[in-house]
Design a protein that fits this description.
The chain is an alpha/beta fold and 331 residues long. It folds into two domains: 194 residues, Rossmann fold (3-Layer(aba) Sandwich), CATH 3.40.50; 106 residues, no CATH class. The protein has a nine-stranded mixed β-sheet with strand order 1-2-5-4-3-6-7-14-13, sandwiched between helices. Strands 8-9-12 form a three-stranded antiparallel β-sheet, covered by helices on one side. Strands 10-11 form a two-stranded antiparallel sheet. Strand 4, helix 5 and strand 5 form a beta-alpha-beta unit. Helix 2 runs antiparallel to helix 9.
Length: 331
């Protein structure tokens, strides 16, 4: 059962922490024990991982955040104008909610008050973002949901008092395989009413060099972010990964359609994980896959929407045509 607390303008719901911890342990056991070792990317975002990702977003090589911010800065009022009024705003994978401020401000200009429902796996990120938002916007109330996407989406689907805009920004959809992305967008569609809208941020296909620089920055912040997953296993599950034995790798494949990220073992690492009562042996060259970042063409975005039972209402691009924000409605 989720835990919930409330104050006049800020309420939060947290899915059972013990269940989430069991999910982490089970996922690590299954992933490291498979023939092709992997770890789910959703577990990259503990408190430290979330902070490192915010640092990544500020790197000059990581164009995605700036491109999406540019679109929102230029078109937030037009996006909000496409929604019924008054409306609520929900967000999947909200993080610091920094870009979302542009949508919040547009809603407040239009309707004076706004209910904002951010969903994020990091309770710390939700708390920090909510406190900052409530201090800056007097007409705002926040219901924060600390959970993974699927549980959070159930709560968002119950938000029926007002029509809502569901924002899924940052090209987080790129972490899903293409078939899985269609299934998850369909689940968002199932949580939408006829008056709801989905605002989907998707990174576009582009040349390999731009992608390589974005996902393997010279300062090594992305490397720290990726290796923090091993540090989390050490801290939370009693592991003893030698972090110095592992190197971050980002590889562009599928003609710029996918960036494969993971960790390469550079020297032997014998790992014991106490919580799992398991030992794992890694040799130089072994690879643990941690994340994919899949890119889309405009035609692939339209196909994704159609497969999920959604229609494209409008699409906006940044000035360099690197990134797309697409507004979708139920058909």
């Amino acid at each position: 059962m989720p835990n919930a607390q409330r104050s006049p303008r800020y309420a939060w719901i947290e899915e059972n922490h013990e269940e989430r911890q069991e999910s982490f342990a089970a996922s690590v056991d299954a992933g490291l024990g498979s023939e092709a070792p992997s770890l789910p990317c959703r577990f990259l975002y503990d408190a430290k991982g979330s902070a490192l990702f915010e640092e990544i977003c500020d790197l000059p090589e990581y164009y995605l955040t700036r491109a999406e911010h540019e679109i929102l800065a230029n078109h937030a009022d037009a996006i909000v104008a496409r929604c019924p009024s008054p409306a609520a705003l929900a967000e999947l994978g909200s993080g610091s909610s920094s870009k979302t401020r542009l949508l919040i401000e547009a809603f407040l200009r239009r309707q004076g008050r706004l209910r904002y429902v951010p969903v994020d796996i990091s309770r710390t990120a939700l708390d920090d973002a909510a406190k900052a938002l409530l201090a800056d916007y007097g007409g705002l109330e926040v219901l924060a949901i600390a959970s993974e996407y699927s549980e959070g989406l159930r709560h968002v689907g119950r938000e029926t008092r007002l029509p809502k805009l569901i924002a899924w920004l940052g090209s987080n959809i790129g972490n899903f395989e293409r078939s899985e992305a269609k299934g998850f967008v369909r689940s968002i569609r199932d949580a939408m009413s006829a008056d709801d809208r989905l605002l989907l941020g998707i990174d576009l296909r582009k040349e390999a060099k731009v992608l390589e620089d974005a996902y393997d920055d010279p300062k090594g912040v992305t490397s720290l972010f990726n290796k923090n997953l091993l540090a989390r296993i050490n801290h939370e599950l009693g592991g003893d990964f030698d972090l110095g034995a592992w190197r971050h790798r980002a590889r562009v494949v599928e003609d710029g359609g996918r960036v494969e990220l993971g960790l390469v073992c550079e020297r032997p690492d014998e790992v014991r994980i106490d919580a799992l009562e398991q030992e794992y042996s890694f040799s130089p060259g072994d690879f643990i896959h941690t994340e994919d970042s899949i890119k889309y063409s405009p035609e692939e975005i339209a196909e994704l929407a159609d497969a999920a039972g959604l229609g494209v209402e409008e699409r906006w691009l940044d000035s360099d045509e690197r990134f797309s924000l697409t507004l979708l409605s139920a058909r």
